[in-house]
């Protein structure tokens, strides 16, 4: 049947990616599996219709007219607007334009995963977790968030190596949710964590008492408020259980990072703090912020690249994440 074929091809994509992440004596072997991953990925993308993903009609029915006021311009999340206008130069049919946008987004995400597969200092099991959790979400569903998460991953990877990556500052123009995360660019400042803690204590009551009522009265921000209301409704149903399980899994990962690996990097502290803050506000908002936390923790690597016995077993066990990979296919469509 159609669905069985989709599942089979998805499993082949997973195996190809797993094999492309392994280290080989000759690069030509790795290049072969990366090519195989690219081919099977593109085949699967062409076989699954764009319109069956969860966010499709939200994007399709959104207005992409020119911003009227300055405030509208500031909050209009320019990235998707500009990509839409770019493809609009060649095509007027909105459905065809979005087919182009979905393919463009998919290719960006696929190139990111190829980049990740080639990083020797990121352990195999970490690559697989990022892939399993986010391949379908980034590549098939979210159009505005995907480049934000990718730029954040590149920022983390560069920062852990004491390299600059200023393109990350563009992310709030792509998706407003990235605005709190951009605080991380100041992580090298002497009293960063202290300032961040006091700023959070100060801003939470200000946000709840003054900013939220103001936002609700602005017509330009109505779509964002509506989205938050949808999240609140979602938190009341069965998804609440899924988000709680996810919360427990993340908490275990945080516990391992802080108490076993003893990693106390300011970037990781910030993403942990933001995740828990947004989870308290709404579990679904916490879920939306969780990629920042996962990416910051999983891309962290010490200067010494060593494979412990623990990593050896995790590398093997990561193969058994295949069922969850298939679950994410169902969950995003």
Question: What's the arrangement of secondary structure elements?
Answer:
Layout: H1 2-21, H2 27-47, H3 56-60, H4 70-75, H5 78-88, H6 94-117, H7 124-141, H8 145-160, H9 171-174, H10 192-216, H11 222-234, H12 239-260, H13 266-281, H14 283-298, H15 309-317, H16 322-331
Describe this structure in words.
There is one protein chain. The protein is an all-alpha fold. The protein is 71% helix and 0% strand. It is built from 16 helices and no strands. Helix 12 (239-260) packs parallel to helix 14 (283-298). It is globular. The two termini are 17 Å apart. Mean pLDDT is 77; it is low at 214-222 and 230-235.
Short overview:
The protein has 333 residues and is mainly alpha-helical.
Which characteristics define this entry?
mainly alpha, about 325 residues, globular
Ranges with pLDDT <50 over ≥5 residues?
A: 214-222, 230-235
Question: Helix fraction?
Answer: over 70%
Mean pLDDT over all positions: 77
| N-to-C series of helices and strands | HHHHHHHHHHHHHHHH
Percent of residues in beta strands? under 5%
Rough shape? globular
First-to-last CA distance: 17 Å
Going by helix content, strand content and strand pairing, the class is mainly alpha
Give Rg in angstroms: 20 Å
Give the helix tally: 16
**Major sheet details:** none
Number of strands: 0
